[in-house]
Structure formats: structure tokens, C-alpha cells
């Protein structure tokens, strides 16, 4: 299968420099999420494109037959919220999401305005479950 040439690729840019560019409160939230994701994956953070911090890699093949690699989990501080990529999907985690606190979701994304709005223990569980679900697809 052909690998997809994504615009957003893992690169050697500095994660710390990227986080240091954020407002102080956002940077603090990023460092907390980074710690949770590092613990869940056992991986060091890497920049994916210019604005995503990712952990690990996994191989995928889409319905079209195209194949590629993407991060196992990651996050990005966006203007409106902190986007967390829980790529196994959140549709099976309704019980945990009810306990999480103030958030919204997309297909594989969890959107949080600030970490003070959520229960960090529940967030940690969501991240860990997402990482475990992706384990079979990981690239070493």
C-alpha cells in the first residue's frame, strides 16, 4: 500500500520552545498533559508539524487502501481550547466522559478550555485507555 504524504509530520523542532511560546496558563496546562501522555506511552514528546505535540507512532491503513503513520496520542494548544487526540475514539467512554468535567468532543478529539475545568484523574484514565487501545498498531 502507498504511504500517505501528510503535511503534518514528525520533526525535530523543540517541544519545549513550542510550549514556551504559549501564554503562561496554557503552557502550564500543556506541561501537565505532556506529563500524563508521557507516562501513558513511555515515549518522549515530539513535534508533529508546527503545532501538535505527539507521542509514539502507529501505522494505519484507510478504507481507500492508503497507508501511513500518525502519533499514538497527542495534544495541541489551539486558540479556543486545548485539543487532545485520543485516537482510539471516545464513543465507548461515555461513563468516564460524564465524570470528566467541562469538555466537548470530536471523532478522536477531546476539547478542554483549561485543565482546571476537568478531573485530572479521569483525564489520565481516558489517555491511558486510548493508548492501550492503540497498542496493537504501534510502530516501534
Q: What do you see in this structure?
A:
By secondary structure, the protein is of the alpha+beta class. The protein has one domain: Aspartate Aminotransferase, domain 1. It contains 4 helices and 9 strands, in the order βααββββββαββα. Strand 4 (58-61) and strand 5 (67-70) form a beta hairpin. The chain starts with 9 loop residues before the first strand and ends in a 6-residue tail after the last helix.
User: What name does CATH use for the topology?
Assistant: Aspartate Aminotransferase, domain 1
Q: Which spans have pLDDT < 50 for at least 5 consecutive residues?
A: none
Query: Helical region count?
Result: 4
CATH architecture: Alpha-Beta Complex
Order of helices and strands: EHHEEEEEEHEEH
Integer tally of domains: 1
Shape: globular
Describe the main β-sheet briefly: 7 strands, antiparallel
The share of residues in extended strands comes to: 15-25%
CA-based gyration radius: 15 Å
Q: Helical amount among residues, as a percent range? A: 25-40%
Count every beta strand, where a strand is a DSSP E run of 2 or more residues: 9
Distance between the termini: 19 Å
Mean of pLDDT: 89
For the record, what CATH class applies?
A: Alpha Beta
Q: Which structural class do you get from the secondary structure elements? A: alpha+beta
Strand line-up of the largest beta sheet: 1-2-3-6-7-9-8
Amino acid at each position: 500500500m502507498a504511504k500517505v504524504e501528510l503535511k503534518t509530520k514528525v520533526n525535530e523542532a523543540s517541544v519545549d520552545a513550542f510550549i514556551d511560546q504559549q501564554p503562561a496558563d496554557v503552557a502550564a496546562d500543556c506541561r501537565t498533559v505532556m506529563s500524563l501522555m508521557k507516562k501513558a506511552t513511555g515515549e518522549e514528546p515530539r513535534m508533529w508539524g508546527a503545532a501538535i505535540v505527539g507521542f509514539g507512532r502507529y501505522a494505519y491503513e484507510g478504507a481507500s487502501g492508503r497507508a501511513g503513520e500518525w502519533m499514538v496520542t497527542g495534544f495541541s494548544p489551539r486558540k479556543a481550547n486545548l485539543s487532545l487526540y485520543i485516537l482510539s475514539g471516545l464513543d465507548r467512554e461515555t461513563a468516564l466522559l460524564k465524570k470528566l468535567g467541562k469538555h466537548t468532543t470530536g471523532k478522536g478529539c477531546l476539547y478542554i478550555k483549561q485543565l482546571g475545568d476537568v478531573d485530572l484523574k479521569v483525564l489520565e484514565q481516558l489517555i491511558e485507555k486510548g493508548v492501550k487501545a492503540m497498542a496493537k498498531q504501534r510502530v516501534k
